[in-house]
Write a structure and sequence with these properties.
Layout: H1 7-10, E1 16-22, H2 30-47, H3 52-63, E2 73-79, E3 82-89, E4 97-101, H4 109-112, E5 118-125, E6 128-135, E7 138-146, H5 164-193, E8 197-202, H6 204-212, H7 216-219, E9 222-225, H8 237-265, E10 284-286, H9 288-296, E11 300-306, E12 315-318, E13 325-326, H10 329-334, E14 341-344, H11 345-355, E15 359-363, E16 374-378
Parallel strand pairs: 5-8, 8-9, 11-15
Antiparallel strand pairs: 1-2, 1-4, 2-3, 5-6, 6-7, 10-16, 11-16, 12-13, 12-14
């Protein structure tokens, strides 16, 4: 899961008000229910000791919310007199969640926000390709790759005479040149858009030709879909379903791969282990002491959080820096934190993961994640 959008929350000190609310109201008494909810949020913030200016900022934002909200839920993060981040949620929170804490309570987002994979889609035919960037239900045109169309002196079909071979060779050469142009444009745009997947759709021969010209790291995340067309007005219903299936498959395989590496690399819960088996990007850490230690040393490549992590709310000690985290107060002082403060383990580890641009994956129930619900695949082991 990409959590770079959370960086503004960690660029300033707290304390923070974190509010998760449901926004879907379709009944006749929707306006009244909204008012009751807002009063409940205000009351809970006051009970938690929130600063009056922060309470007012949250209430002002909630008061401007439409009575019938489109997203299922919202998450608000406020400090001082400002709502710093207001996010739509992919699913409603199971209960109203209101906290006042040193760190913003971002842990519920890894489940409620949902993964929004970015896909680069190339609609290909024998003259070029239209390129589109997709994320969830948003689509954005990102240009074209236009090749040459060889028409052969006005012929509308391949001529059946002694020049047929020459004609066919010219046409196929033009198609190959077009595939080169499309592949080059995809390679050029790849780092700029940083998509998770590439979807090639349209003409079957040409999309295979484009695929064969891509570098290996792009081929590894490229899929072909046969239901898209470059023609204006073409239906995308089947293509949309194929892209959704490809995204789901990508997420499952990415999670399974991380869990496989984690299971190979881990030792007993709470300990590092040096494995004789190659675990890919690194070894594993399991349990709060080991994961906290790895986060402080910038060893974490992938942070694993179980959907129902029992250790998530355990208190750890933090300082102002994202890697200022320790299990014991004395340990925090030992690494230079003058005035350690307590925070939830999941929020502290997510702060460290966001700062280090680590991958964060949610482990669904029943998939055999880390003991206590918190673990990591490491870049290297001690």
């Amino acid at each position: 899961m990409e959590l770079g959008f959370l960086k503004p929350l960690f660029d300033r000190p707290g304390p923070w008000a974190s509010v998760y609310v449901e926004t879907t109201r379709t009944t006749e008494d929707a306006a009244k229910l909204q008012q009751l909810r807002n009063r409940s949020v205000a009351g809970r913030l006051v009970d938690e000791g929130a600063a009056p200016a922060t309470v007012r900022a949250v209430m002002d934002r909630l008061a401007r919310e439409p009575v019938s909200g489109t997203p299922p839920g919202r998450a608000l993060f406020a400090t001082g007199d400002e709502v710093v981040l207001d996010l739509a949620l992919a699913q409603a929170p199971p209960t109203e969640d209101v906290t006042w804490s040193t760190l913003p309570h971002v842990a519920p987002l890894v489940v409620l926000r949902g993964e929004e994979l970015t896909c680069l889609v190339a609609y290909i035919d024998r003259t070029g390709a239209d390129l589109e960037l997709r994320q969830a239900h948003r689509r954005e045109s990102v240009g074209q790759a236009q090749g040459k169309e060889w028409r052969g002196r006005g012929h509308r079909s391949i001529p059946a005479d002694r020049y047929e071979w020459h004609y066919r060779n010219k046409v196929e050469k033009t198609w190959d040149e077009t595939a080169d142009v499309i592949a080059s444009e995809l390679v050029r745009q790849w780092p700029e858009n940083d998509p998770a997947l590439l979807v090639l759709t349209g003409d079957s021969r040409e999309r295979r030709a484009v695929y064969s010209r891509l570098p290996q790291h792009i081929q590894a995340v490229a899929v072909e879909a046969g239901s898209g067309s470059r023609q204006a007005g073409s239906s995308t219903t089947v293509l949309d379903e194929q892209i959704e299936e490809a995204c789901d498959r990508y997420e499952r395989e990415r999670l399974q791969s991380a869990l496989d590496r984690f299971r190979i690399g881990r030792g007993r819960p709470g300990e590092h282990r040096t494995s004789t088996v190659d675990t890919g990007p690194g070894q594993a850490a399991e349990g709060i002491p080991a994961v906290v230690d790895a986060a402080r040393k910038h060893q974490v490549a992938t942070l694993l959080i179980d959907r129902n992590a029992s250790d998530a709310g355990r208190q750890v000690w933090i300082g102002p820096g994202p890697d200022d985290v320790a299990v014991q107060r004395g340990d925090a002082r030992a690494v230079g934190v003058a005035e350690p403060e307590q925070a939830r383990a999941d929020d502290a580890l997510l702060r460290a993961a966001v700062a280090a641009d680590c991958e964060v994956l949610v482990v669904p129930e029943g998939m055999g994640g880390p003991a206590g619900g918190l673990g990591a695949v490491l870049r290297w082991s001690d």
